[in-house]
Amino acid sequence: MKRYLSFLMLIILLFGACSKNKVEISTEQKLAKADELYANRKYSKAAVLYDEISFERKSAATAYATMRLADSYYAQNKFTDARLKYQQFIDGFPDHPNAADAYFRTALCFFEESLNSDRDQTETVSAIEAFGIFMERFPKDSRYERSLEYIRRAQYKLIEKKYENGYIYYKMRDYSAALMYFDEVIALGNTDTLDRKSLYYSALLHLRQKNKEAASASYSRLKSRYPGSKEAHKLDKKFD
Q1: Torsions phi, psi of 187, nearest 5?
Q2: How many Cα atoms sit within 13 Å of 178 on the Cβ side?
């Protein structure tokens, strides 16, 4: 028993000695190392250190580390993780000088997360809303025009989604549902491929529903907007 206790005491003494010799790394040293890793594009390793610092709750260091952590995720195309950290930064430091950056990059993350037009567009809608919030809060920011362009691109994706829905219903022979989506695209008044194709299917579907007046209206608009188009030529014989 005595030998066991002596051995246990020895272990405790050795552990204590090791603990005393252990070198503590300061927050400043961690930040310097994390920044060095980030500058060398070692974003994954930098993120580990930024994450540690962000939990230390030391005001300035916490804010900086949280923002850099989000940037590290963004640089790795981990847009959901980045967005959540940007939002954490906004919630924790709403009046910070870098708040505009966090709002803008949150919107960018939503845009990058958005799926192709044939799939769910929840993130696309969120991107439009997030860019709108950024523009409302920071109307004089130099990224205002860029935000407008991202909104236009996101909105066009939603138009593509309407067209895709219409085409899917057309293939399913649900002509009323298809016409609803094609008419929504046409009502926007754009002059582009989606409008041209929507007018074509609108005329074709109205013919199949034996609604000659509506079919003729779509055909006339197609001929007027896109004279010589292949879609117009396809319908020419049907309206001779």
Answers
A1: -65, -20
A2: 21
Classify 84 as helix, strand or coil.
helix
Q: What is the pLDDT of residues 161-208, one digit of tens each?
A: 999 999 999 999 999 999 999 999 999 999 999 999 999 999 999 999
- List, as one string, the DSSP characters of 112-180: HHPPPTTS--HHHHHHHHHHHHHHHH-TTSTTHHHHHHHHHHHHHHHHHHHHHHHHHHHHTT-HHHHHH
Distance CA 164, CA 223 (A): 23
Side-chain half-sphere exposure of 32, counting CA atoms within 13 A: 5
- The phi and psi torsions of 88 (rounded to 5 degrees) equal -60, -40
Give the Cα separation of 124 and 152 in Å (integer). Answer: 11
Unique residue bearing structure tokens 């950056």:
101
Name the nearest CA neighbour of 208 among 240, 165, 238. Answer: 238
127 in Cβ contact with 107 (< 8 Å): yes
